Amino acid sequence: MKNPGAAESRRLVGLLEDALVREARLWKVPVFKTGCTQGADISPSQHQDVILWLGEMSRLFHFCPETFALGVCILNRLLSAVKAQLKYLKCIAFTSLILAAKINEEDEVIGSVKDLVVQSGCNFSTAEILRMERIILDKLHWDLYTATPVDFIHIFHALLVSGHPHLIPSIGLGSGVGWGSAAGPGFLPGCPGHQNRPPGLQVALWTRQVQHCMACHQLWQFKGSTLALAIITLELEALTPDWFSVFTDLLKKAQVESTEFIHCKEMVDKYLTSLEFSLPANAVYIVDGAQIQEEERAWSPARRLRQRGREGEGDSDEYYDGFRCLYKEEMSPEAGECDGEGAFDAQKDVSPCPPLHPAVN
Amino acid sequence: WFHTLQVRRLRVQRGRSNSDPLGGNSFEQDFQWKTGLQFGTANSYLNLEKLGEGAYATVYKGISRINGHLVALKVIRMKTEEGVPFTAIREASLLKGLKHANIVLLHDIIHTRESLTFVFEYVQTDLAQYMTQHPGGLHSYNVRIFMFQLLRGLSYIHGRRILHRDLKPQNLLISYLGELKLADFGLARSKSIPSQTYSSEVVTLWYRPPDVLLGSTDYSTALDIWGAGCIFIEMLQGAPAFPGEADVFEQLQKIWAVLGVPTEESWPGVSELPNYKPEWFLPSEPQQFRTVWKRLAQLPYKTEDLAQRTLMAMPRDRISAQDALQHPYFNTLPPPIMQLRDTVSIFKVPGVRLETEVRDIFSPSRRIKPSLVPLAKCW
């Protein structure tokens, strides 16, 4: 039972293939090489800002990372499908997130559209949101299930755990992997006997990293699968001398083209490093940090690539809900030293829209 | 969705001929199919009759003016303040990505400011009605092909990280050929690998697994497998496997009466689940399935074995849909059935056909041969 074996691995490969098919079917480069969103008067930085804002909203509403990622995918797909005006950008983004939540979140988490609007501090009317909802559903032909970068993080992580458990001991078994088959390693509903294994620390960090990358317009040219693999490879490189064979295995399974992959990996590395060393004045950080202590699901800046693996290993969190604790656990050691995060402690109860709100209005 | 009694009465008159798209009438003679009509607009469909009413929608039988196909029109109630209900968004966007012979086909969506209608392929009946029409348990061969198709559909969606979460006979549509199709994906959800907590108010009580009844919110594909197991017993036995009448606790008692009260040894961690009661000590020994459900005693052991593997108390022990398809219970089906492409019906395999049920409340004296039903393959 503990060794899921070939069947589990086959199942995960199937999962990956299915996700790749969905991605290939629905993914479009959201921006042209020239930098401008198709035909619209929305600049990459405005687009980027609205994604960051969406991240805040997602945390504010206690949505899970998958919901945020799906919301961004919906937004990007819409922007590549229609010529959108800047004045509607925020409403489009907000509605994309609501649609993602309707798909992904339990209904008790979603809350009413009206409440969400009030919480967001924006002045949309419900009617506007509903009209936008209809437009988005129509333009995207109701075909909203796409494979997001966050999905790929989870799938690759599961493949690593099932295929190379020895590589990253802190991933351990039971990090929420084999959700599907009855014999899967992490599939232990209501089975507290196994709950004291360490949860997937890496996967939580990778998730946050990939969320950061989704907001970086230079990285939009890459598919979610490529992006996710780049993040994971950066980690593997640091963790194990054995990374190359593992990586090539994943690369092959993910059908990612290698020159593009290398390009992506370099850019991700640069971007994550820049986040690491950026000053509090960096807008990315401020917007990000304003809420980070407030929300359990907050992402922390991607940082300390090379130390991560060893942190928080001893935590014996609950299974999947361990995610929430995880974020908290990680936050504390980082908060003190990290740029901006700690500084915003005092803002716990500030209005949903932080003062240094991106200029999207 | 469920269909009303009225529909069943109609079936008395028409028998199985209602699977004929034109109801035996030469509709075509006085009706010209409009060529200029488009998908996505309401006037492309004619409403024929109301089929039933569900929690968030009303279902009508209709006919497409574009191609003459019979359709099921699911008219979704819209809340003015909330926009499109999440159930509708999940159902439509999930079904968009699912193309499988055992999943109901979504043809079209008509979305206006005031209303939302999903246009599905028309399927003649559902398993609940079918079992009502053929009481006392179904033909064992038909049980096998229904069960195979149910598991085939589940294996397909589970492989795509989707849980149905609301399996019950009413949600399994049955075509006149015997094709089974999973329907009503309103509660289904695509599930990421690290599970979020699920709300426990999901599955109809009778088909709800003990772990969920006990308050675990950590469930997974095993949830649907339990439901499939319950439906398996119900098809064989002609009565629900665990027909609890009152609440969660009565439902659990029904289950314990068969499986025995779980202990920490048999199910590590069970006592920590929210609804677990230490005072459960009543007739706590596990029963043999064949003594509880007599039909199993009349059938080869592998039938009981499959039932047992789907109805394991601890979710982790439950067989997966994929493995269940390989179970010896299905060995008697023609081997090509295992190699079909997703979108191909098992009835394309030579030798697979619905057997005539022994009992039929609508024609007690006469046996209907399904093979005599006119062919109308287009849906």
Automatic annotation (TrEMBL), chain A:
Task: Give the family from UniProt.
Answer: Belongs to the cyclin family.
User: Which keywords has UniProt assigned to this entry?
Assistant: Cyclin
Q: What is this protein called?
A: Cyclin I family member 2
Boundaries of every Cyclin-like domain copy: 52-138
Gene3D superfamilies, per this entry? Cyclin-like (1.10.472.10)
- Biased composition, class Pro residues, residue ranges: 352-361
Region called Disordered, residue ranges? 334-361
Q: Which residues form a coiled coil?
A: none
Pfam families, alphabetized:
Cyclin_N
Please name the source species: Myripristis murdjan (pinecone soldierfish)
Automatic annotation (TrEMBL), chain B:
Supply the InterPro entries for this chain: CDK, Kinase-like_dom_sf, Prot_kinase_dom, Protein_kinase_ATP_BS, Ser/Thr_kinase_AS
EC number from the UniProt entry? 2.7.11.22
Gene3D superfamilies on file = Phosphorylase Kinase, domain 1, Transferase(Phosphotransferase) domain 1
Any single GO molecular-function term of the entry would be: ATP binding
What is the name attached to this protein's record? cyclin-dependent kinase
Q: Where is the Protein kinase domain?
A: 45-330
Say which enzyme class the record assigns: transferase
Q: Which residues bind ATP?
A: 74
Q: Does the keyword Kinase apply?
A: yes
SUPFAM superfamilies tied to this protein: Protein kinase-like (PK-like)
